[in-house]
Design goal:
five-stranded parallel β-sheet, Rossmann fold, globular, 3 helices, alpha/beta
Length: 126
Amino acid sequence: MNTIRKSLFACVASLLAATAAFGGDQLLSGAVTSRSGQKLEGVLPALLEKSLERGWKVVVQGSSEEHIEALDAHLWTYRDDGFLPHGTWREPEAAQQPVLFTLSESNPNGATVRFLIDGAPMPADP
């Protein structure tokens, strides 16, 4: 595992530990970036799986509708032995999704974790 990936997972582990320390009603936000050129598609599924293992709902806020559509398709097929349950803000059942992709700062599924991708701005009121 390369240094960047180790650093990213260490950062996420710290964020996850911080959320646990503050309780389940706190919203945790973090920007997912990779300076090594590693694609988000290779990193994000593991972060989402770790969040779901802890029983947390997640919002992934992006700034590109095209990239969200690509990530949506990727999460249905990235593993041969399963998939990651998720949806997008367009779906009528968006509030019930454990992982929700959106372009807005809203939190329709009551997520406790928010990942910011593609330079999405930090929400004014997390």
